[in-house]
From TrEMBL:
Keywords: Ligase
Domain BPL/LPL catalytic: 6-182
PANTHER family (alphabetical): BIOTIN PROTEIN LIGASE (PTHR12835), BIOTIN--PROTEIN LIGASE (PTHR12835:SF5)
NCBIfam families per record: birA_ligase
InterPro entries linked: aa-tRNA-synth_II/BPL/LPL, Biotin_CoA_COase_ligase, BPL_LPL_catalytic
Region (Disordered): 34-53
Tagged with keyword Ligase: yes
Top-level taxon: Bacteria
GO cellular component: cytoplasm
Record-given protein name: BPL/LPL catalytic domain-containing protein
Organism: Porphyromonas cangingivalis
GO molecular function: biotin--[biotin carboxyl-carrier protein] ligase activity
Coiled coil: none
Amino acid sequence: MTIYHIQLDEVRSTNSYLKALITDRPNLPSWTVVSTHNQSQGRGQRGNSWESEPGKNITLSILLHPNRYDGFEPFDLNIFVSLGLCSFLDEFIPSQRVKIKWPNDIYISEHKVAGILIENEWINADLSSSIVGIGLNINQKLFVSDAPNPTSIALETGNTYPLSDMSERLLFHLQEIYNQLPSHITELRENYHSRLFRRDGMTHVFRDMEGRRFDAEIIGVTPGGQLCLRHVEDLCTYQYAFKEVSFVL
């Protein structure tokens, strides 16, 4: 698939820029990519900001027009992006250390290296387009925000990397996984589960929407993207949607 790459020196948000571009050019093709050296107001899930030192990391957004198929779930997009990032990181980090923290963060051991923000555009009940925003820490070594546990590939390996080459490799891995939809969706969902952060048979601490803490074991994620937790208190399994539960790190 052809990639149409728009490189900007600075922009407030690559997702917002691409969204505005679609308004002006509604026939913009899939795999139009907007990237920047300096994203001044990057956004993450739950309304969080994304810290990225100018010229040190990959910040980009990808336009997709997903093909619907039998059994399609919008969360399949999270799966493909997460696995594409993991596949890319496996080039530099032992794969057993690269994990997917539900719903859309990528971790190296206990530290966050990447975040994903997917914004879907619906026309009636049909998914018209998706904008996939990715922030991936490459060469940044000092983090000044209150994010609790950031890391970068440079911090993990002791090396620095040319961003243009890294962007090309990342897009290669993303397209490689995307091309496996829909024929390998069952395998991709299984791979996603095998990569889940803290899905290790142990109990961990979580926080619900009211701020209450509880102990639970991660069982998995439903095809629709709900996190399944078995509570220690009653040994029952409950499903949680985005924002209904969070990890206590």
